[in-house]
Amino acid sequence: MMLALKKRAFLLGSLRVIFYNNMPTKFFTNSEDNTLVKKFEGVFTYNPNIQYFDALVGYFRASGYFRIRPFLDKVPKIRILVGINVDKLIANAQNEGTEFIKNHEKTKEKFIQKIQDDIEKANYNKEIENGILQFIEDLVEKKIEVKAHPDKNIHAKVYIFRPEPFNEHTPAQVITGSSNLTDAGLGGGNQYNYEFNVQLTDFDDVEFAKVEFEKLWEKAIDILPVDIQLVKKETYLNEDITPFELYIKLLTEYFGNNIDYDPDSIGDLPQNFKKLSYQIDAVNEGFNMLLKHNGFVLADVVGLGKTVIATMVAKKFLLQNGKNRTKILVVYPPAVEKNWKNTFKHFNIDKYTKFITNGSLHKILDGHQDYWNKEEYDLIIVDEAHKFRNHTTGVFQNLQLICKSPRTTKGLIDGLQKKVILVTATPLNNKPDDIFYQIQMFQDARQSTLPITNLTSFFAPLMEQYKTLKRFDELDVNKLREIYGKIRKNIIEPITIRRTRTDLESIKEYKADLDEQDIKFPKVEPPKKIEYVMDEKLNQLFHRTVFYLTDEDKLRYARYQAIAGLKQEIQDKYYENAETVSKSLAFIMKTQLIKRLESSFYAFKKSLVNFQIATNRMIDMFESDGGKGKVFIAPDSNVNKLLDKGWSEEDIEKEIERLSEENPKNQTFKADDFDPDFFEALKKDSKLLKELVAAWGAIDYDPKLEIFLKKLKTQFLNKKTNLEGKLVIFSESKDTVDYLQQAFEKEGRKDLLVISAKNRKKLYDTIVANFDANYELEKQVDNYHIIITTEVLAEGVNLHRSNVIIHYDTPWNSTRLMQRIGRVNRIGTKANAIYNYVFYPSAQGDSQIQLNKTAFMKIQAFHTAFGEDNQVYSKNEILDEVKLFNKEAIREEEDERLKYLYLLRNFRRENKAWFNKIKKLPLKSRTGRNSANIKKPELQNGTVAFLKTDKKFEFYLVNSDNQPSEITPIEAFKIFEANQKEKTCKLIENHHEQVAQAMEHFQTVEHKLVQSQVDPEALGGVAQRAKKFLSELVKYPQVSDKQKENIQKIIVLIDIGKYTNLPTDIDRLQKKKVNYKVALVEVDKFAAQYNVDLSNAQKGKKSNVKKPILIISESFE
Prior knowledge:
By secondary structure, the protein is an alpha/beta fold. Helices cover 46% and strands 12% of the residues.
């Protein structure tokens, strides 16, 4: 029989004969072009008389039908008999106590669901969509019938092509094998299955297949046609989705779990604490961030209760993780110790908590008996977290070792990674580096949980751009905003909670909470500038002084560049980068002098004299012993202070010898160890300083102080604006504070408090009793009306019985101004307005050190990255060259997302059934809108799309020229926004093409990002050198197995960027060029320091560019 079949076999039309080892065969496997869909094409093309197409398949997918539909136009009868997962359905039926034979509806349901799933998973393009619609039309017209057998688990795959009539004389065919009627089974698309099929044309074979098919068909149950329009409505093809419903769907997908508002999720609150909706939102959102990203930044503006919010998050974590399995650490500046301990005690979670100040973190690392081991903590809260922005400091290193060391005891919340809450109203102090290093308390620099997985490669170019901007005299504000806009979108938003007073007053639910407690926020008036005018004599001296301080041919600051003055061979022996370090120190000294000049003439004179004394003392060292004297260089001590205390040269030399045992940079040198030019530079400095000291000594008046004292009487303490007659004065300089104290005392004022780091703790109760509006009313007193202080009172204390604050000088770190104003701009003040007076640098000083520019850059960066609700400092802050000294100039920034979140919550509360229906709308849902009707003509012939992967989402606007551009969530919300009555329109002709443009742009950007992050350069030079050194070290045969294991773990830790300073530590070791034995001893120390034994860190797989999911889209006619 088979021999006869082979003799009679033939292939029709364009169907090719395949040769296997030079022998013809009827088998095909979907390899190359030899696919089942090609066979179908040939059969239908060259057999125009086919009247029946019958398919018996295990699986049927709409995608398979779309693929062959073009060949079926002239085929009047199409029957498909499909297998369902019968075993599973029988099991379900038995569980329900029914027989499968009675469960036809479930069989139908299952199949229809498969059809819907197939439609949802199909690529979003016009061709496929037309195929889907054609499939639906074929079902409605009954061109196609689909049945399933109720009691046979069909695995066969048979396709029968026959004419009518069908007999031995009419050509017919049957294809059988392994291919299901799916896109992959047919060999269509980019991915296809390897199949094994055979084509038979003998009448007996086709007849046998036909008869068997008819038997099965007779007993099968109808699945389709059904009311297919209902199926259509359940997919994105639904044409009845309104713009309003799509708008709600958008918000639902964007906000996710944050829609839920559960006031009970934080447990019971202590007496006198009220459940405020904005705090509950922050707790729930923050807790979700803890779980997803291992930490978050709580950056609500000053005065909104960050301590209480962080405490509530801690309590929720405690309840979720298990009380007996949770240990908490709170890190804070000494000034706020009482506040944290009292709040935790009120919430009854202090027994699970250890409290420690910033400067005492080493005690935990040293195993101090008052603290648990660093591995035992589960949650760490860091107050004033911006103090840890500098990764080169010891406190940063200590905190990161505590935060990043793995948990030894897991609670109910899984994972070895500790959870971290960074609490600060000013997370950005200076530059992009601030954010980069702070978030490394809970994020790995090269394997983060954020949309940007490699933070190192993301931040590196932005840091460089920021440095470049600072070099120009004219600040490019737009470029600055662009830098921080990228940081805000990709880094800050996913892990930051920040709400301003504007948010609280603009959200109805938040406002209701404030009204219920009778809380009102004072209005912060625009900054008021105070400038002073110098007479001709003083102006000339000021100009000459700045010239002497800054010109390269004048003061050389040689006293502070001593190590660069050493002869080269001696430099190389004791110091690295002597030239760079010296120049840096000289620049700091130069800057400090000019800042002192701007602060007060008194402070400047004092600093100038100290500089003169230090320079002359070094000259004396050179000239002693007949020009062969001893010169002391001791970075770990202060030689001038030792001399002031009366130490002899012998005592100082012994002290430096002691220090040099710990740090060889502390040394005693001889005069001839220095280049002759250095001594000449010292003498030149001494001469210029003598001239300046004499000139300033002749100045016995101070126009800045004079205008200050005048304004004190006429403006600062004016009862019309100063409600309680209280005044807070800040200066960066302790000398200026002393100077102002003397001036007040000369004026006969005794109601003056002067606070410094030395007396702050001692006078804390006095400060609170006189200046804290939240202090118990019966304990408030009025013994003091004026407080003068340095930055020591810029945090951790309420001073809001005063509503007037004066900045006598401009802080170099201008975000301190925000902290200062936060002392008086707090809940509980009686005042309706806060007045903020700023002494601006004079033209001469500003032109040299660019105080205004530096302050402007820092504030602008902060506004862009985080959003701030009050203006603090700048003359032309925020965007344009706008004078801010008028009421209209105040700009309050708010988190507009909150408005949309509450709109969604309210809609759900009032329309629960409708909300649930919208929430279930399938992905890829879309609608058309009329741009003229909604008064947005700029959107005409354009499309907006919401795309998403598991790590990020993007909104795109594609214009009428098919050009895609990313837009912000708020911009997208405003475009999608619609009222309930708006009707849907037809999609524009190029809707699908525009969506494709958006998706292509998304993938292009992602591809570039992935490439930049996997390049070796993404590690950074230091990390690359460290890895290379370790890779060579491990090759020595003397390295133990344990050391090899630890070295491999250290390499992984470097790869993922777990510890910021680990690569630097290894790189320093390799630079020392020590032998391998010494190197291994040092590496063993690093392994212990960085908890390598406990590390289970693994380097993630190389990222691939993921195709985004289309969430929703809409087009505009």
